[in-house]
Structures are given as structure tokens and as C-alpha cells.
UniProtKB/TrEMBL annotation:
PANTHER family: GOLGI TO ER TRAFFIC PROTEIN 4 HOMOLOG. The keyword Transport applies. The keyword Coiled coil does not apply. One of its GO terms (cellular component) is BAT3 complex. One of its GO terms (biological process) is protein insertion into ER membrane. It holds the Pfam family GET4. Keywords: Cytoplasm, Transport. Gene3D superfamilies: Tetratricopeptide repeat domain (1.25.40.10). InterPro entries: GET4, TPR-like_helical_dom_sf. It is found in: Cytoplasm, Cytosol. This is Golgi to ER traffic protein 4 homolog.
Length: 246
């Protein structure tokens, strides 16, 4: 019986995909939505997730942005309604869809905002760090440095964040801002009580930045010395002494 059901689902998906490949986009989109409501009522979550993911990519690969984004938004709704917590599996898939949705469409922001809210169910109030890392990488590939930096702040990828900051500073910053770029991010990490990623980001930034290239004080820029000592103080829980000293 189960095998028969699986074959039935496979035939439905194949029919939908062929409809898209044949260029019958409107018809295919309406069919996807009809089956979405049917499978949702039957709680066929796994089949529905697979169908929506593949369908969204098929539409987007053919530049059917509105239809692709619509299925992507429905996909996140299913993740929420199914109480899925498989962030490791779905983060790369969601980011793959996100990268394909054009920045010209507001549905893109709706999709990723909903995805972040879904991932927040894992305990991270601002969204799962792994998802933020993937989103940051997409923005970085688009040279959207500001949004990439924002999402790296909520990730645990200090190495990636440092590389982004170096490129951002070298490409768009002023020479006198070399210390400001890393200081801002370190303080934000510390405010989020993420001292491990703060240290990782600082160490990689100062080590790899072409005009710094040092792993320990003394740095030429006084602010970098302060941040280094601040991170040491936070690690050793002697922050008050640093405040008194400075």
C-alpha cells in the first residue's frame, strides 16, 4: 500500500515538473497550489516539502520569479506547520532558493524573513546561526556587504565574517577605518554574548588584513590594542579592571 502511495506521489511530481518544462507555467503553478492544500490537509509533509522545493527551483531556473517565490514561501509554511527542526538539512536548501530569487521582487524578503522565524524555534531568538551564515554568504556573493555583515553577526562563523570584513573594508572603506570595521562587529558579538566568535573574527581579521597582518599587540592602531585587551578581559572575566585602566 505504501509503495503504491509513493508511486502515486512520484507520478504527480513528474506531471508537475513536465508541465513546467513544457512552458505551461500558469497551469503548473495552479496545480502546485491545489496539491499543496490537498497534501497539507492530509499531513503529507515530507512529500509536500520535496514537491515545493523542486518546484520552486524549476520555476526560478526559468526566471518565473513570482511562481518560484510563491512556492518558496509555501515551503517555509510547511516547515512551520510540520514542526520540522531539521535545520542542517533545510538551511542549504533554503539558501539555494534565496540565491535564485531576484532582488527586484519583495517576495524575496518575505521568504527569508519567514525562514528566519521558522529557524528561531531551535532556541536562537534571532534565528538559527547556521541559517544566518548561509544568508550572509548569499549576500556576500551579491556584493551586498552591509546585509552580509548583519547576518554574520548572528552566525558563529568568525572566519567567514573576518574575510567579508576585510573585503568590505578594502573595497569600500577608508584607510582610517581599518580598526572601526572590526571594532563594531566585535562589540556586537559581545553584546550578543558570543565571545568565541568575537575572538575568532578579530584574530582572523588582524591576521589576514593586508595592512595589519599581526596576531598580537602591539598594533599600530590603538583601538585594535584596546579590543585585543577587551577580548582577553572578557575571556578571563576581568572586564571591570579594563574599564578602570582605560
Amino acid at each position: 500500500m505504501a509503495t503504491h502511495a509513493v508511486r502515486g506521489v512520484s507520478r504527480v511530481i513528474e506531471k508537475l515538473e513536465n508541465s513546467i518544462k513544457d512552458g505551461n507555467y500558469y497551469e503548473a503553478h495552479q496545480m502546485y497550489r491545489t496539491i499543496y492544500f490537498r497534501y497539507l490537509a492530509q499531513k503529507k509533509y515530507e512529500e509536500l516539502l520535496d514537491m515545493l522545493f523542486k518546484g520552486a527551483l524549476l520555476f526560478l531556473d526559468r526566471d518565473q520569479q513570482i511562481s518560484g517565490a510563491d512556492l518558496a514561501i509555501l515551503l517555509v509554511e510547511v516547515l512551520v506547520k510540520s514542526d520540522s527542526a531539521n535545520y542542517t538539512e533545510w538551511t542549504p536548501k533554503l539558501c539555494k532558493i534565496f540565491a535564485k530569487i531576484s532582488t527586484a521582487y519583495p517576495e524575496r524578503d518575505t521568504f527569508i524573513a519567514n525562514a528566519i522565524r521558522w529557524s528561531a524555534k531551535g532556541g536562537a531568538m534571532q534565528g538559527h546561526p547556521f541559517l544566518h551564515q548561509g544568508i550572509a554568504q548569499v549576500y556576500w556573493n551579491e556584493k551586498n556587504y552591509i546585509n552580509a555583515r548583519h547576518h554574520y553577526i548572528y552566525s558563529k562563523d568568525g572566519l567567514g565574517c573576518a574575510k567579508l570584513l576585510i573585503e568590505f573594508q578594502v573595497m569600500q572603506g577608508f584607510s582610517y577605518e581599518e580598526d572601526l570595521f572590526i571594532t563594531q562587529v566585535v562589540l556586537q558579538y559581545l553584546c550578543l554574548q558570543n565571545k568565541v566568535t568575537a575572538s575568532q573574527t578579530f584574530n582572523n581579521y588582524t591576521k589576514e588584513h593586508p595592512r595589519i597582518r599581526k596576531t598580537r599587540p602591539p598594533y599600530l592602531l590603538p583601538l585594535l590594542n584596546f579590543i585585543w585587551f577587551l577580548l582577553q578581559a572578557v575571556e578571563r572575566q576581568v572586564y571591570i579592571q579594563v574599564c578602570v585602566y582605560y
